[in-house]
Amino acid sequence: MKANTMSQPTGYSRLQIRLHWIIFGLLVQQFVFHEWIAGAWDAYLDGETVAFHPLVAAHVIGGFTILVLALWRLRVRMTRGVPPPPKGDAPALELLAKSVHIAFYVVLIAMLTGGAVAWFGGVELAAEGHELMRFVLLGLFGLHLAGTLFHQFVRKDNLVDRMRHPVD
């Protein structure tokens, strides 16, 4: 995704960094409180009345919040751009990094949309897809973390500094 600006930024903006970490924190919260929404869904499938529970509400609200923030982050990425890949990376590593970032957006948007369709529409297939994407998201996170650690401790190219020091 190319930026509409004349030059490619040398780092991430303060907004991009904040959105990255807020989304990460909300995703952790979603995983931590997953059992509450799963229990409510199972009760719904069993024909039981699902009573209000604050952690179920937090999961639903958290999901919508992540969706909005992910779309916002994608918009900022498309208009502002992102820094170039580190110098010296093999083309295969560049392709992998780009693929993981694209997959993050695709999976997040599909997962959150599927969760909403399941919860508000009662669509069991959407719930199954939502659950499956949880594991895909964990795999993407693992690849992202492995790439970050590789750059920090093997390549020692200070790639992590792009997420710690904004360039506005």
TrEMBL record:
It is a multi-pass membrane protein. InterPro entries: Cyt_b561_bac/Ni-Hgenase (IPR011577), Cytochrome_b561_oxidase (IPR052168), Di-haem_cyt_TM (IPR016174). Its cofactor is heme b. Keywords: Cell membrane, Electron transport, Heme, Iron, Membrane, Metal-binding, Transmembrane, Transmembrane helix, Transport. The keyword Coiled coil does not apply. GO terms for biological process: respiratory electron transport chain. The chain crosses the membrane at residues 21-39, 51-72, 102-120, 132-154. It comes from the Bacteria. Residues 12-164 form the Cytochrome b561 bacterial/Ni-hydrogenase domain. It is found in: Cell membrane. GO terms for molecular function: electron transfer activity; heme binding; metal ion binding. PANTHER family: CYTOCHROME B561, CYTOCHROME B561 HOMOLOG 2. Belongs to the cytochrome b561 family. This is Putative cytochrome b562. It comes from Octadecabacter arcticus 238.
